[in-house]
Design brief:
Elements lengths: L3 H8 L5 H13 L1 H21 L3 H22 L12 H35 L5 E5 L4 E5 L5 E5 L3 E5 L8 E6 L1 E5 L8 E5 L2 E5 L3 E5 L6 E7 L2 E5 L6 E4 L4 E4 L4 E3 L16 E3 H11 L4 E3 L9 E3 L7 H9 L2 E7 L6 E8 L1
Parallel strand pairs: 5-7, 16-19
Antiparallel strand pairs: 1-4, 2-3, 3-6, 4-5, 6-9, 7-8, 8-11, 9-10, 10-13, 11-12, 13-14, 15-17, 18-19
Length: about 350
């Protein structure tokens, strides 16, 4: 909080250049407070003018104005009572009242002016706002209602110091920000930006008001209403996960469509019949052998040789080739009599 003395020095033009910069920065962040301080300073100067009032000169002028009418009244009106010195009682009473005014009048006026200034400062129904400018790449602030706002660099937000006496929680945005709105069903939360408004009760959304041509909103959680400030009947309700922009002509959905990924297994390698037969012999510890000459030894087929399961491999081979096997009395004892690639 800036010192009051610096603000008064600023108004009196008795402040240093460095301190003047501090006051100017504070005034930009607190324009309503600065305005009130100006009014207090101006009122204080008025009080000083009253206290510097030349009472002697005013008294002399006043008595000169009263002297002739008083004398005429005393000489022409025979019914006026006179005191021992012969002065009219009416004139004497008036003189006493004027003397009291001369002594206490300026002080009473100064006190009254001071009271009026104090009452105006504390009771005048003024809205006090805070303006925050984001200098960092991501700047996060918490509003008086506990709403969390994450501002992108260069964005600016203006909001009341308190929402207590307000029916709506209204803030103004220039730039891009994400709002995590504190729930309050009795006080709708409204963001105004570039002629557009977003109304919520409790949700998370992103508002992009950088472009003067179009304004965009993305609803992250909950439900929001995106509308024109000049015509609230022109609106669209944006559901969770949806995005829309308004370009002056209407609302356009910009919701990203979900990407569908299809799993495509890698292609099977090619192996010659000779390589396949040798692999069958290997995984059966020499119990599967080729018999005869009915083989396409150099022909290739697509089959994986990365399994040790004999039955699984034979099923894969039969899909690509014609193979004849004769079991020799054990689970993995085969004679291969034919192996032709289709």
């Amino acid at each position: 909080m800036i010192k009051k003395e610096l603000i008064l020095q600023y108004f009196d033009n008795t402040i240093s250049a460095d301190d003047a910069v501090l006051v100017q920065d504070w005034a930009e962040q607190n324009p309503e407070d600065f305005r009130l301080m100006q009014e207090l300073w101006a009122a204080d100067n008025k009080v000083a003018e009253i206290q510097l009032f030349d009472t002697e000169l005013a008294w002399s002028s006043f008595m000169d104005a009263l002297e002739t009418p008083a004398v005429e009244a005393s000489s022409s009106d025979g019914e006026h009572l006179q005191d021992d010195d012969g002065a009219p009682e009416e004139t004497e009473g008036l003189a006493k009242r004027v003397t009291l005014w001369k002594k206490w009048g300026p002080a009473a006026m100064a006190a009254t002016a001071f009271i009026v200034v104090v009452v105006l400062y504390f009771l005048w129904p003024t809205d006090q706002y805070v303006t925050h400018f984001a200098n960092a790449q991501t700047d996060q602030i918490i509003l008086p209602d506990s709403t969390i706002v994450s501002l992108e660099e260069g964005s600016e937000i203006k909001y009341p110091k308190s929402f207590d006496k307000k029916e709506k929680r209204i803030v103004n945005l220039d730039g891009i920000a994400v709002f995590d709105v504190a729930s309050d069903p009795n006080k709708p939360f409204i963001v105004e930006a570039s002629g557009m408004g977003v109304k919520v009760l409790g949700t998370i959304f992103e508002l992009d008001a950088v472009d003067s041509v179009q304004t965009g909103v993305k609803n992250i959680e909950g439900l929001i209403r995106f509308f024109e400030l000049a015509n609230e009947e022109s609106f669209i309700d944006v559901k969770e996960g949806e995005s829309f922009i308004f370009d002056g002509n209407g609302f356009t959905e910009t919701t990203a469509k979900p990407q569908i990924f299809y799993f495509s297994p890698p292609p099977l390698p090619y192996h010659t019949v000779r390589e396949v037969v040798d692999y069958l012999n290997k995984i059966t510890d020499g119990q599967t052998v080729a018999v005869g000459e009915n083989f396409d030894w150099q022909r290739e087929l697509q089959v994986s040789l990365e399994t040790n399961n004999l039955e699984e491999l034979i099923r894969a081979i039969k899909k690509k080739a014609s193979i004849t096997l004769v079991n020799k009395g054990c689970s993995e004892c085969y004679e291969i009599h034919r192996f032709r690639v289709r």
